[in-house]
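hey all, quick one before standup. I had two proteins in the batch that finished overnight and I want to keep them in one place so we stop losing track of which output belongs to which input. First protein below, input sequence then structure tokens straight from the run.
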Amino acid sequence: MKVFDMENFDYSKAVEELELIAEKVEDPQTPFGEIEKMVARSEQLLASCRAYLRGTRENLDSMVDTDE
């Protein structure tokens, strides 16, 4: 299993890519085979975004804990 690289992950770019994928999936001209690939990529991006947000929350929680 690959370890998530929080330092090199660009959350904004991932969200932009997800928005582009959503547009393409909604386009009736997009071939079904391409939609399948886009859905798989979306799942990867969403997993990375969730890991990033969890890591950020953990970092913030640890900063708050050390201040108390």
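OK second protein, same deal, sequence then tokens:
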Amino acid sequence: MDRHEIIICSDNQGKISEIKKCLDSLKNIKILSKKEAGVEIDIEETGKTFRENAWIKAKTVYEMIHKPVIADDSGLCVDALNGEPGIYSARYAGENKTDTEKCLYLLNKMQDITDLAKRTCHFTTCLCYIDKNGYEHYFERYLEGRIAFEPRGHNGHGYDPIFLLPNGKHVAELSLVEKNKISHRGQAIRSLVEYLRHNGL
């Protein structure tokens, strides 16, 4: 049986690894990164919401290769910062900053909020899947937590080291398997997997 190809519209290796791991159970699907599919393009995220940005990335790649694609837009929303950094999470601290620099920048913005109960936040993922016929499907999920007072852990990427879970662990302290069980992206991808299985893939 030929395996169906699905292209992940991302160059973020951490994100690609998470998505591939979650889709491992679909044995007749071959997951390729944008680069592996031969798509060399920088896509400008001009949307005003996570959903719009996911759609822009998915639609751009789909129109180039006309194969099923997955794109997601994810970010951290901090209540005390009026939802920032939100869709600007990747470049909140400036262009081309390391994950460590992003975390330290956010912690500095939060330095006057010393009550942990007031440091609530959530991760958001909106995943856009465009099937072989060009139909769009969306899966949006969340992970609730708080902004810790200092980074901890060496796994994950982005703001994982400063995202404190209700169980007292930082997301960056979790293994990839543990993270995928609870994460916003893991939840969204599992919903996609259920959809794909329901449709015979």
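Flagging for whoever picks this up: The chain has one domain: 4-198. Helices lie at 13-22, 50-65, 99-109, 176-182, 184-198.
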